[in-house]
Amino acid sequence: MFQAKDPAFQSRILSKMKENHFMQFINFQLDQLEAGCVWGHLNAQEHHLQQNNFLHGGVIATLADLAAGFAAFSLVDSKQTVVTSDLKIAYLNPGIGKLFQVKGWVIKSGQKLIFAEAEISYTKADGSICLVAKGYCTFAVVELP
């Protein structure tokens, strides 16, 4: 478990979400927020899909970046932010669902870098979970002016 440096991290994240125009454009929804871990979902629409009606790889990468990024952001103090410095996505299965679950969590938090992971999945008709992709992210901690 991680401890948030800013006791108001949840309200800071909700405020940042309102300022994140791309997140609003794709309609990613945050469901649960803890220090170092976030859960959310995306209801896939036609504009999220590629030519075979699978969730587009760019949308998948964006979801991983958002979830892991907010998890990382939850651990910095109120005079800091985080920016993505590295993002690697492993595409494991086609995203053929309609409701995609997204989880992002911190694996190591340092003063200058925060390492996080993310998973994007959906529930199949038989009730089993299909892991679509896993993201490996590094975030640089940046002091705000």
Give a written overview of the molecule.
The structure is a single chain. This protein is an alpha+beta fold and about 140 residues long. It has one domain: Roll (Thiol Ester Dehydrase, Chain A), CATH 3.10.129.10. The protein has a 6-stranded antiparallel β-sheet. The longest helix has 17 residues. About 35% of the residues are buried.
Kindly give the count of domains.
1
Number of helices: 3
Structure classification = alpha+beta
Characterize the largest beta sheet: strand count, sense, and whether it forms a barrel. Answer: 6 strands, antiparallel
If strands are numbered along the chain, what order do they take across the biggest sheet? 1-2-4-5-6-3
Level-1 CATH class name: Alpha Beta
Strand content: 35-45%
Tell me, what's the shape?
elongated
User: Would you identify the CATH architecture?
Assistant: Roll
- Uncertain runs: none
Q: What is the rounded distance between the termini?
A: 29 Å
Q: What percent of residues adopt helix (DSSP H or I)?
A: 10-25%
By CATH, the topology is: Thiol Ester Dehydrase, Chain A
Round the mean pLDDT to the nearest integer and report it: 95
Q: How many individual β-strands? A: 6
- Note the run of SSEs as H and E: HHEEHEEEE
Determine Rg (CA atoms, Å).
15 Å
Short précis:
With 145 residues, the chain is an alpha+beta fold. Helix content is 23%, strand content 43%.
What are its keywords?
6 strands; Thiol Ester Dehydrase, Chain A; elongated; single chain; 145 residues; 6-stranded antiparallel β-sheet; alpha+beta
